Amino acid sequence: MSKLSFLQAKKKKLVVGLMSGTSVDSIDAVLVEISGSGTSIRFKQIAFYTHQYPNGYKKFVVQNSLPGSGSVDTLSTLNILSAHFFVDAVKALAKKAKVPLTGIDLIGSHGQTIHHLPEYRTLFGKKVHSTLQIGDPSTIAKLTGIVTVGDFRTGDMALGGQGAPLVPYFDYIAFRSTKKNRALLNIGGIANITLLKKNCSVTDVSAFDTGPGNMVIDALMNKMYNKPFDHHGNIASRGKILSGLLETLLHHPYFVRPLPKSTGREMFGDAFVEKILKKQLKNIRGEDIIATATEFTAITIYDQFNRFLRKRLQSEMLDELIVSGGGSKNGVLMDTLQRYFSPTQIITSDSLGVSSDAKEALCFAILANETVAGNNSNIPNVTGASHGTILGKICL
Predict the structure, then answer these.
(1) Distances (CA, A) of 157 to 126, 133, 162, 174
(2) What whole-number distance in Å separates Cα of residue 135 and Cα of residue 115?
(3) Which domains are delineated in the chain?
């Protein structure tokens, strides 16, 4: 326990943040220098590395994430196998940064989400909801020799929260402003949005998952073009919007569900995509379906902002929409968002000094630091938890 006491007393720490999102395309690893905690925190990105999974791994994970398809022995093995890939990412990042593993103080690992069930169900007289992230943090700690904090979501869920989204705490720490009303939009597999009114306190923060980000587009690209994603939106740029299909997609019940709410592959994964493809007629071009899926992502983000956040600004305007994640590189998606949100200025987090690629990994480095400092890092009015709490499990 002396190591933990040493970490708590240390003024500056080198912390690694690890993130593997619902797209399961790679591990984002960031090395950041952190001093302080809470609203007095200061951080500086030192290095960033994207660790690619081996061929076939994504398909294997996704297949075993579906209800009725993942056996207990496979999931048990995946939990440890995933941790080994996270360890590889840490080692590669340290090598890139020319920092020995012994020079790194702490790791914050989100893990790989296998299943997220935020709605309650009753079993054996108990009302429960659950989430499962694999990539055992104890294995990461033992194989790197670095204290690791992981499994951030379950603590919030134990207190009645949805365990998501957790990024809004980082958004508040890094992007709050005294002069501008800002919204932070991260477009990963799932899109989530955070509203930071000017001069807001942490209790003023509003955030939730708007629905699919890249997930539907990527799945359709894989099935129709055998490509992992629509590079820069090139396919969508050649297509036309299928109004009938778009209207059908917009009737998904998630979009009228009240806050707090979060979602994932369980709602917008392969089963959802198969429904889209079943509506495909022989004369419909693939690029029209991709264009429609891209429009679907943009319009649901805008609809959810209007439905749940616009009124919180009262008569004021949203000054900036700050975008991060893989979707920020899709030119068609970004242009469509600008069309909907105009005259709000749309920028990427890079322009404010936070890498759009590294942002979520950076978030979990910050959350790990908050855990070691003993600070609450969930936002109850965002997740629905009964009160604030320290998140994560500390593995020595």
Answers:
(1) 14, 13, 5, 25
(2) 13
(3) 2-167+357-395 (3.30.420.40), 176-352 (3.30.420.40)
Express each pLDDT in 282-291 by its tens digit: 678 999 999 9
Residue located via tokens 């296998």: 114
DSSP 8-state code for residue 325: S
Tell me if 105 sits within 8 A of 56, measured CB to CB.
no
Q: How far apart are CA 378 and CA 160, in angstroms?
A: 12
To the nearest 10 degrees (0 to 180), the angle between helices 359-373 and 2-9 is: 110
Structure tokens at 123: 């079993």
CA distance 354 to 348: 9
Cα(204)–Cα(236) distance, integer angstroms: 37
Q: What is the dihedral sign for C-alpha 91, 105, 78, 61?
A: negative
pLDDT tens sequence across 22-53: 888 899 999 999 999 999 999 999 999 999 99
Q: Which of 308, 296, 302, 293 is nearest to 323 (CA)?
A: 302
To which residue do tokens 């707090």 refer? Answer: 260
CB contact at 8 A, 378 and 385: yes
**pLDDT for 74-111, tens place per residue?**
999 999 999 999 999 999 999 999 999 999 999 999 99
Q: How many CB atoms within 10 Å of residue 342?
A: 9
**How many residues in total does the chain contain?**
396
